[in-house]
Amino acid sequence: VLRVSSPNGFNGEVCDSYVHSFGKLLSDPDYNKKVIAILALGNIGVGSANRMLIDIVYDKPHVAYKSPGNLTDHQILSLRILAATSLKFTSHDLMLLIRASDQPLELRIAAYDTVVRYSPETIYELDSFIKSDGDEHLYNYHYTTVENLIKSSDPRLGSVRKDLKNLTRPLQLSYTLSGSHVLEYIDKETGKGEKFAISYVTDRRSGFPNVATLENFVIDGSRWTSSWRLQIISKNVFEMSSTFLYGLMYRARRITHTQVLQFLQECQAKIAKGFTLEMHIIMSYKNRAIFGGYYNRRSRRNPHQDLKKVWNFDSSKRSRSFVYYHENSERQFVSDMGLPIIFENKVPYVTTLYLPWRYDFLRDITEIKLSRYAHHSMSIYNPFGDVWHEITRSSVINLQLPITPLYTDQHRKVLDIHFKSNAGRNMTYGVSTYVSAATIIRGNESHLSELCPECLNRVEVKNNIDRRSSEVITDFEDFGFQFSKKISDCDKDHVHRLMRTDFINAVFKESKDNWKDTLVSAYVATRQYFRTLLPDSRNGTCRVTYKAIRMPNDPHLILEHDFVDGDKNDTYPYILTGKRLKINGTLGTSDNTSRHWVFDINAEMNKGHTYNTLNIKLNSITPGESNTTICVNASKSYPDLPHDPLSINWTREVTTTKFEFSMAETEDGECSRNDTLVDVSIRGKLSLEQKERFERDDIAGLCKADTMNTLVLSSESGTRKTVDCLERAIMYTTLRNYTVNVYHKNVPMSLTMPFYKHGDSMKALFLPRGVYQTDYSELDRFKMNAVFPFMSRMSDADDESFPIRQRVGPDTDRDLWTCPLDNSRFPVLFLWPYLHNYL
């Protein structure tokens, strides 16, 4: 079908015959055949296939089913959604569907996605209607899409971004409403890019997503192309999960009241009986649907078995391999001098999965091997010597990952975890990579063979003759592993960089206005870090291998845990109850003669959570030697909560943080401060600027006006419970003045000097908005005072000479992730959603 429907080989008659065949499947009683037929019509994407999809979107009679009684309402709606998302063009019919307020929300958003995907310039036309429509879900979805387009780096959207910057955009309503979010990154050094698009349509009543889509894009030349896509259309997932939550509630809370327990069990039974889970799963690869299935409780279909058919998974074979080309192209053209030039790019991926006979996941070892081969070359013909000159860059990456069985045994509060390996099996984890950059002179092979059969018809010229090799092996007998890093056959000019500049930029990027920037930075930092571990073909030829070999002794972990309610005997109800967690155990190998670790962890929060402690003790025990004891003691204290939570007294808004690290050789295994010691204390309080503002607001602030306003009634004495008074309380309980004292003893200079040397750089990268005063006068002490002044919302001037406009996203001064300040009154679980307009 793809051959006859592609632009280069379109055959209308043959294509129509295929469309007619798929049209017959739409009348088949089997619902799954209807799903597959719609996806197949979307893959064709031309001519009568599109017309048939439009008919399904508008629910025209006798197209997807003979009578409505044959299908449920959810199935009919799902078919219409699939048809709308399968279309690969924008039409007037879809524009009308978006404007149809009487149509289901899921269908309108599916049409909106298709229109914006293939004609992003139409979003400006839809903006005025969506704002006047009054549907919060549709508006929030539209707002997040506009934000994605404005921040996109796609060069094709340049004119669209200019128009969208003129739109008036209030803040996003809520993440609990339907929305679309994009995480996008382009590596400036390589020109490669990746993008993840996440969208969801939530149920108006429960807020649980009914339609969820995850799509991955990569840059192909100068445009984004879809790599893979996963879409799930579900019904009653929230109701079915509620049955699990009800069961978890009366099991975890150990409810003993008979009537309450009976009520929860009845609720669980009614929900499970009245609702049936329904789910559509659609998978696409390179913008073509490859899998579609419908599943419910009554269906006998197994998603696992269906996916095995898609990937040609033959259960009778022990070794299964999958191959796909990430890139496979060859371009030929003639230069200005009339010489032929050939560009080749071939990047295949090979995945091999090894399973033993009669595979048992709990007892057998699964071996996964991943290989990536890349070949990039440019060849130019030399007519004077009748030879081809070729410049190549090639790389090979092999990953071996055996999955070992995990044996667990749990008795009440004791958990025993044992990693066991089968004797005689290869238990090597590792990554091996080889890169090569070479100049090749290749002659006419037939011509050379006639003149000189013994001559070599390929001469390879490398940059350097000198090679360097090295290997570092580290034994971790405590955990049963041996790690090694081996470098071999490396050019002299090949420099193995530990840190790349783009990795630093990704981690310490200043503009992190929202969670999207935070996730992108985290993803990019991780991606770039692993790239730094591998050689670069632009620096010559090199082979690098990282290996982790399982030693004969298997790792063994025993955990004993105890979590209790510290106020279980207190009859007075309190929202912040005391908690206490204890964890202790041992970690080592099955060989009792080697070193092992004994650890003890205690965490406690008092009633009101005003004093919280964490104590960790690790003992390294080696038979016949002294014990090494490592201790970490930390505490965080807040002032007691007043009866009136909005009443502020700036003299008592103080927090204290303490951290102590010690390490020493001991006989009794107890903590000791006699050897290595690091002692840190941080005291937070209101800044002078806050105190001055507090005095002014106490006389003529907005909260003071609410207090004097007789229209704002309050049945209780104290501060009025208004938004302005809450904002005032948050402002003057978020501490902006910190005093830090650090004392260290017997800490190696190699660890302390980087902090002293790069301290200012780290402060500028992590907390650039602070004003710091530091004292390095004593060798073993460090003192610092940090003040974070108020900052009004910043504005951006874009690069295209537009007027200064407000930045898209939350206020940077109110973002707790941008500047993690202590608050002496309100917990982060309240502050974060409140300051981001989720409450």
Strand portion: 25-35%
CATH homologous superfamily title of the domain at 314-496 and 535-550: Lipovitellin-phosvitin complex, chain A, domain 4
Q: Please tell me the CATH architecture of the domain at 314-496 and 535-550 by its name.
A: Single Sheet
Shape: globular
> DSSP helix count?
21
How many DSSP E strands? 29
Structural class: alpha+beta
Residue-averaged pLDDT: 77
List keywords for this structure.
12-stranded antiparallel β-sheet; Vitellogenin domain-containing protein; Lipovitellin-phosvitin complex, chain A, domain 4; 839 residues; alpha+beta; 9-stranded antiparallel β-sheet; globular
Written description of the protein model:
About 5% of the residues have low confidence. The chain is α+β, with helices and mostly antiparallel strands and 839 residues long. The two termini are 51 Å apart. 29% of the residues lie in helices and 34% in strands. The strands form 4 sheets. The protein has a 12-stranded antiparallel beta sheet, with no helix packed on it. Strands 7, 8, 9, 10, 13, 14, 15, 16 and 17 form a 9-stranded antiparallel beta sheet that branches. Strands 1-2-3-4-5-6 form a 6-stranded antiparallel beta sheet, with helices on both faces. The longest helix has 18 residues. Among the domains are: 199 residues, Lipovitellin-phosvitin complex, chain A, domain 4 (Single Sheet); 152 residues, no CATH class. The protein is globular. Helix 2 packs antiparallel against helix 3. InterPro entries: Lipovitellin_superhlx_dom (IPR011030). This is Vitellogenin domain-containing protein.
